């Protein structure tokens, strides 16, 4: 249907496991409200780990390529990429493995990473279009589409802090293309039932999550579209997570997800963390923060100091400890 919004659901869990069921319950609400839906069980896809070759970054920083990964011609990453490009909203669920997201989730994040960062893509697209080049020679313009997202964390442990790095780590998926997280939910103590289907209140919450996605997509203003709708409130007003890093600079702390500084004070026995409007605007979840980082990489890559006789110096380490 022309003009119909598409919601993509991604599960990094097992078939018909908690992650999949939670995502699909939210998708059903979206479909009920007139949205087109798509679901992918990501662990069914063969996605090669990033090898750190920097080929994608070099292409984009020089505005002379699409940023396409060399592995995309021989694995299933393009299937996932196309689904994300076609989507207006993405709902992602991932189980917590050893405090944080699964290894396959991180593999996917690494493959999206700089190659889909909007601040790398914008100049490359502008130069490609200005020169009248074939669209296949610069990034897909759909990278720049405004999308909303919802994150779902799942863990069996009855103690919530055993999931402490999961939701923070899941922001790595939404960060490159600047997806606005409008809802998130943490389902812990999942081991109490053999399925989340035994927890009607949790399934009802997924209906609310789906409705929140619908409301964001139907919003009439940018402010309403990006409005955060979850009851999960942390210390950071941008990512709404609970964590801060002690910087060692007086009472200055940092949000490890957003990379922004705030001040920590104790008021009437309560910890209060304050982030200025200026700092909030430079969160790495915002475009300004992304420009800081991409310019950092451009400047570093273009002005690297060369080590004299590097090949000769490396000889000392060839074969050390290898059998």
TrEMBL record:
The keyword Transmembrane does not apply. One of its GO terms (molecular function) is oxidoreductase activity. Keywords: Flavoprotein, FMN. Residues 15-186 form the NADPH-dependent FMN reductase-like domain. It comes from the Bacteria. SUPFAM superfamilies: Flavoproteins. PANTHER family: IRON-SULFUR FLAVOPROTEIN, NAD(P)H-DEPENDENT FMN-CONTAINING OXIDOREDUCTASE YWQN-RELATED. The keyword Phosphoprotein does not apply. Signal peptide: none annotated. This is NADPH-dependent FMN reductase.
């Amino acid at each position: 249907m022309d003009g119909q919004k598409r919601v993509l659901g991604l599960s990094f869990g097992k078939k018909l496991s908690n992650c999949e069921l939670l995502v699909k319950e939210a998708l059903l609400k979206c479909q009920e409200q007139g949205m087109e839906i798509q679901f992918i069980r990501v662990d069914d896809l063969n996605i090669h780990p990033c090898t750190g070759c920097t080929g994608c970054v070099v292409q984009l920083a020089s505005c002379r390529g699409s940023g396409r990964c060399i592995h995309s011609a021989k694995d299933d990453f393009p299937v996932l990429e196309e689904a994300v490009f076609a989507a207006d909203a993405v709902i992602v669920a991932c189980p917590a493995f050893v405090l944080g997201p699964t290894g396959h989730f991180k593999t996917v994040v690494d493959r999206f990473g700089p190659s889909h960062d909007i601040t790398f893509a914008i100049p490359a697209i502008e130069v490609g279009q200005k020169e009248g080049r074939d669209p296949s020679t610069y990034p897909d313009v759909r990278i720049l589409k405004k999308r909303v997202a919802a994150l779902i964390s799942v863990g069996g442990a009855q103690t919530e802090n055993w999931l402490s790095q999961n939701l923070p780590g899941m922001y790595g998926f939404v960060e490159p293309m600047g997806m606005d997280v409008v809802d998130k939910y943490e389902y812990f103590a999942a081991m109490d039932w053999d399925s989340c289907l035994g927890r009607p209140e949790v399934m009802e919450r997924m209906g609310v999550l789906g409705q929140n996605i619908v409301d964001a997509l139907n919003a009439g203003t940018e402010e309403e579209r990006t409005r955060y709708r979850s009851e999960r409130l942390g210390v950071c007003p941008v990512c709404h997570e609970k964590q801060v890093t002690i910087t060692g600079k007086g009472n200055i702390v940092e949000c490890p997800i957003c990379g922004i500084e705030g001040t920590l004070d104790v008021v009437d026995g309560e910890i209060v963390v304050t982030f200025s409007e200026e700092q909030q605007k430079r969160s790495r979840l915002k475009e300004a923060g992304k420009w800081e980082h991409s310019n950092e990489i451009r400047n570093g890559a273009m002005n690297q100091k060369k080590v004299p006789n590097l090949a000769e110096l490396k000889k000392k380490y060839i074969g050390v400890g290898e059998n």
